[in-house]
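In the design runs reported in the main text, the only information available to the sequence generator was the tokenized backbone. The following block is the verbatim input for one such run; it is reproduced so that readers can re-run the procedure and compare outputs position by position.
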């Protein structure tokens, strides 16, 4: 556990295990805790690298707006900082979008790509998923899909179905516990994420044909990303595998952690081995 100077900020980083390198990229309003189950499985056969982007987990926020291009730049800088020429990339939600862009713009850095619940543009949201990275992020994502935010969404309140008991917002609890900016800063982060999700990404599906890394595209059958959009991503990448996880929502990594971890591990185990080349 350490902080690395990446760009103009100190970003929290973890490295564990031994073997070929795997880089985990978390989702929006998430910390590394959201992928802890997957990390715990992968460290048995791989060296797992992970960091928290600005405004997430243990990394302090920045004054600038969030952007996926900055996410890619920070990821490349992180790989350089830990001495990795390339790694297997496993990204979830916002992290999956960053993974797609990384594979497009920096193909030599990506040994393989697992993209979980990614989208190419803001029109991909269905608004049908009940859980995302966190209950509060779910409200912002659904507001992004509808193009508006209510006061409760902006304030980060969840809206359970009538008569249903509200579920604990696990990622908000992680944020309150981990963020160096303090619990009250969460609304600032959520507002920035809302602006991000309503304007980015803007990836032309035709460009995905340039991805050369072995790729696994995964999503939930009740995801906030439309199933046809996930299919479009998979069919646009040469040779990509597609996995739709039944009985799950956008929070699939937490809802079926063992299954998701097994699928990722099986995909990685099927990739050619190479030496751990460092920069």
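Verbatim output:
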């Amino acid at each position: 556990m350490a902080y690395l100077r990446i760009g103009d900020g100190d970003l929290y980083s973890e490295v564990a295990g031994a073997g070929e390198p795997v880089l985990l990229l978390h989702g929006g309003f998430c910390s590394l805790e959201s992928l802890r189950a997957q990390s715990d499985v992968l460290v048995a056969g791989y060296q797992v690298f992970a960091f928290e982007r600005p405004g997430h987990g243990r990394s302090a926020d920045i004054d600038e707006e969030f952007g996926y291009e900055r996410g890619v730049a920070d990821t490349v800088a992180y790989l350089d900082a830990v001495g990795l020429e390339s790694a297997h990339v496993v990204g979830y939600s916002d992290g999956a979008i960053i993974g797609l862009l990384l594979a497009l713009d920096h193909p030599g850095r990506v040994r393989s790509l697992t993209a979980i619940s990614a989208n190419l543009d803001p029109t991909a949201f269905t608004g049908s998923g009940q859980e995302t990275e966190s209950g509060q992020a779910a409200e912002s994502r659904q507001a992004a899909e509808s193009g508006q935010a209510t006061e409760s969404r902006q304030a980060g309140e969840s809206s359970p179905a009538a008569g249903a008991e509200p579920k604990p917002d696990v990622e908000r609890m992680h944020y309150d516990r981990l963020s160096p900016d303090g619990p009250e800063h969460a609304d600032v982060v959520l507002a920035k994420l809302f602006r991000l999700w309503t304007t980015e990404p803007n990836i032309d599906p035709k460009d995905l044909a340039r991805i050369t890394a072995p790729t696994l595209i995964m999503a939930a059958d009740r995801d906030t990303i439309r199933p046809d959009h996930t299919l479009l991503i998979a069919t646009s990448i040469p040779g990509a595998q597609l996995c739709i996880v039944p009985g799950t929502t956008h929070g699939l990594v937490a809802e079926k952690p063992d299954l998701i971890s097994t699928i990722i591990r099986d995909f990685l185990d099927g990739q050619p081995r190479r030496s751990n080349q460092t920069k």
